[in-house]
Design goal:
Layout: E1 2-3, E2 6-7, E3 11-13, E4 20-23, E5 34-37, H1 40-48, H2 55-72, H3 76-87, H4 94-107, H5 112-152, E6 155-159, H6 176-183, E7 188-193, H7 201-211, E8 215-218, H8 223-228, E9 234-237, E10 241-243, E11 248-251, H9 254-264, E12 268-271, E13 277-278, H10 295-298, E14 299-303, E15 309-313, E16 326-329, E17 336-339, E18 342-344, H11 348-354
Parallel strand pairs: 6-7, 6-9, 7-8, 9-12, 10-13, 12-17
Antiparallel strand pairs: 1-2, 3-4, 4-5, 10-11, 11-16, 14-15, 17-18
């Protein structure tokens, strides 16, 4: 997608040497800057600190993290240590473990002398595949959105968190159908939920603005009123993990929007690539919910009057807070799962129809 009019990915290899550059998402939307990841530790820190975030991008970054580690040491111990280090950074997004398992399965049988080149190629392949899968999600999602747009001659979509191209390598998951609709000439507008406490909705607003898509940012708690008032045609979100039965783990606050959409009689769509679907996880109850540090609630990040990034304390340091990062939306509230293979019912049968190769384990 576009940054300052130039096509840009969220992670890309440097021209020379074994390193990758990323967009530092902790400074957006106030400041656009890039960071270089040259070591395993750099990659792990970027994931843990949410300099990269969004399940698909976390997976791609983890794959490059393994490649960076193997470029320095390629023995079995180094491979195991790299996988363990990266696996411990974020617990909920299944793409992380999917990418690590894929890297380990490829590299383990190879002689140490062949691992560095193979790791670099595989990490690049994971990134390219994610971009292509997200593009296809946009195509399939557009088929669901087009009839909604034809009813009123325009399309109003509500989303939560950031599931655009900033959360993937390119195109996005939930926003990919929005970009496809915009590219098809449909008059589209996006209601952007701010998504506290990390305010990832501000990232959504930033990237929509960069691409020229009209949007309006709303406080999280305004969503119910807008949906009940008929101000939106549908809700589309991404996910950090989808269980085998269609239950969805996504950023905290997603469940509330699903409830409001159901009450308003509006479709609630979830857009995910294959790497986000955990066929080994039977239901949402089994998905671990990340509990993040309390300072994310106690301290806010913004820009001061001179445009410099500044932190503002909102609560005393000893104020008791709870900060679950995700919630679970039961499959019964999901109108459809939109994947790179098409849309399906949020159910075991629906998912198996799209991915029959996963049947039986």
């Amino acid at each position: 997608m576009n940054v300052n009019g130039a096509p840009t990915r969220t992670i890309w290899p440097v021209a020379r040497g074994r390193a990758v550059d990323i967009i530092d998402q902790t400074t957006l939307p106030h400041e656009y800057r890039t960071l270089r990841l040259s070591t395993l530790e750099d990659a792990a820190r970027a994931i843990r600190s949410m300099q990269v975030r969004g399940a698909p991008l976390i997976g791609a970054t983890a794959a490059y993290g393994v490649a960076l580690a193997i470029a320095r040491r390629a023995d079995d111990t180094a491979l195991a240590d790299a996988v363990a280090t990266l696996a411990g950074t974020r617990p909920t997004a299944i793409n992380l473990r999917w990418a690590l398992a894929r890297m380990r399965a490829l590299l383990s049988p190879l002689p140490a002398a062949e691992r560095a080149d193979a790791a670099w190629r595989e990490a690049a392949a994971i990134a390219d595949e994610d971009a292509e899968q997200c593009r296809r999600i946009g195509e399939h999602g557009l088929q669901l959105l087009r009839p909604l747009a034809e009813k009123r001659g325009r399309l109003d979509i509500m989303t939560h968190c950031n599931a655009g191209w900033l959360a993937t390598v390119d195109h996005g998951t939930a926003l990919s159908p929005v970009y496809a609709a915009f590219g098809a000439g449909i008059a589209v507008h996006v209601w952007v939920s701010e998504t506290r406490p990390r305010n990832q909705g501000l990232l959504t607003a930033w990237e929509l603005g960069q691409h020229g898509v009209p949007y309006t940012v709303i406080a999280d708690n305004a969503a119910g009123l807008l949906l009940a008032s008929g101000k939106a045609d549908a809700v589309i979100v991404g996910a950090d993990r989808v269980a085998a039965n269609g239950d969805v783990a996504n950023k905290i606050g997603t469940y509330l929007k699903a409830l409001a959409a159901r009450e308003a009689g509006l479709p609630f769509y979830v857009a995910v690539p294959r790497s986000t679907i955990d066929f080994a996880c039977p239901t949402g109850i089994a998905i671990p919910i990340e509990e993040r540090g309390g300072e994310e609630l106690r301290i806010g990040l913004g820009a001061d009057k001179d445009g410099h990034l500044a932190r503002v304390r909102q609560l005393p340091a000893d104020a008791a807070v709870a900060n679950p990062a995700f919630d679970i939306t039961p499959a019964k509230f999901v109108a459809a799962l939109i994947t790179e293979r098409g849309a399906c019912n949020a159910s075991e049968a629906g998912l198996l129809a799209l991915y029959p190769e996963t049947r039986g384990g």
